[in-house]
Amino acid sequence: MLTAKAYVATSSTEPLTPTTIERREAGPRDVLIDIQYCGICHSDIHHARDDWGGQTYPVVPGHEIAGVVAQVGSEVDKFTVGDRVGVGCLVDSCRECAYCKAGREQYCVQGGGTLTFGDTDKYGQVTQGGYSTHITVDEDFVLKLPDTIDLANAAPLLCAGITTYSPLKRFGAGPGKKVAVIGFGGLGHVAVKFAHALGAEVTVLSQSLGKQDDGLRLGADQYHATSDPQTFEKLAGTFDLVINTVSAKLDLDAYLGLLAVDGALVNVGAPAEPLAVNVFSLLTKGRTFAGSLIGGLPETQEMLDFAGTHGIGAEVEIIDAGKINEAYDRVLASDVRYRFVIDTSTLPGTDEA
């Protein structure tokens, strides 16, 4: 076993603290990765604070992992030492069900695949995530990062990127389509970049106009405040696709009213409480209310390649590991532009804590 430095959540109420964890040696099909950066996703906070229930501790969060290959197993043929690579939300799946065979591992019938942290892997071990210096992953769940994007900017694409790219592609965002993005945070700003690069007309729907300049700079054609009731009157029946990136309780009927006939509202944010919808908001215009969960491995690689071609990376604030707890509070206060990324070289060992 290998020892890695890490930051760990020990309960739902205590701050994350430094620790060391064990990583398995690289088996024949494994890739050992020297993690250089790991993004902080809102779902990391949900898990660490047990917002969704059922979390076991201790757990090392982090599934937006960017680094360099340090070692490969004897049967690995996709990667070599020194390659720039990433790991997202999954580190394994059954490989046998129809969804896995179709490259949609996130919908694996065996529990949706093995999560990068807080899950149990095929070795019977609890998976630990990217707030650490190293990780060992089967090569099939390792992704190639484009040379045109800095590793720190690429890290959030492993979750925020694929989470927004997948529904944009699925629902046909492109030339001649009008796309709205609810929320302009860690997911929303990446959604704007992708929708713009795909050729759609892009509108941001945010609580206020505080980030309007950034939104327009990053590719939005319009930016509207949802705190203004006239926004919903002015934009009624406008959009072919609305992507909801926020993890908060919204008036879904109001947002469904922004859709044109046959339009779709797709939820990628994951609020802790249920959302209500009046079915007539769907029936009267043939609208769709859908959900989307990250993406499979082939689509994630497609997204990364697209990002590399178009120079799309996340807007990030790089932090030392000692700022993780502060970063969590700032994420909850919407005080980040637009994704915190941990520099894992700053992780202390337990003897230094």
Short description:
It contains eleven helices and 17 strands. By secondary structure, it is of the alpha/beta class. Strands 3, 4, 5, 8, 9, 16 and 17 form a seven-stranded mixed beta sheet that branches. A six-stranded parallel beta sheet has the order 12-11-10-13-14-15.
Describe the protein in words.
By secondary structure, the chain is of the alpha/beta class. It is built from eleven helices and 17 strands. It has helices at residues 42-48, 98-101, 151-154, 160-170, 188-197, 212-217, 229-234, 252-256, 280-283, 297-310, 324-332, and strands at residues 2-8, 17-23, 30-39, 65-72, 84-87, 90-92, 114-115, 134-138, 143-144, 178-182, 201-206, 222-225, 239-244, 259-267, 288-291, 316-319, 339-343. The strands form four sheets. Strands 3, 4, 5, 8, 9, 16 and 17 form a seven-stranded mixed sheet that branches. It has a six-stranded parallel sheet with strand order 12-11-10-13-14-15. The chain has a two-stranded antiparallel ribbon with strand order 1-2. α4 (160-170) crosses α5 (188-197) and α4 (160-170) crosses α10. The longest helix is centred in the last third of the chain and has 14 residues, at 297-310. The chain is globular, with a radius of gyration of 20 Å. The two termini are 23 Å apart.
Secondary structure layout:
Layout: E1 2-8, E2 17-23, E3 30-39, H1 42-48, E4 65-72, E5 84-87, E6 90-92, H2 98-101, E7 114-115, E8 134-138, E9 143-144, H3 151-154, H4 160-170, E10 178-182, H5 188-197, E11 201-206, H6 212-217, E12 222-225, H7 229-234, E13 239-244, H8 252-256, E14 259-267, H9 280-283, E15 288-291, H10 297-310, E16 316-319, H11 324-332, E17 339-343
Parallel strand pairs: 10-11, 10-13, 11-12, 13-14, 14-15, 16-17
Antiparallel strand pairs: 1-2, 3-4, 3-8, 3-17, 4-5, 5-9, 6-7
Helix pairs in contact: 4-5, 4-10
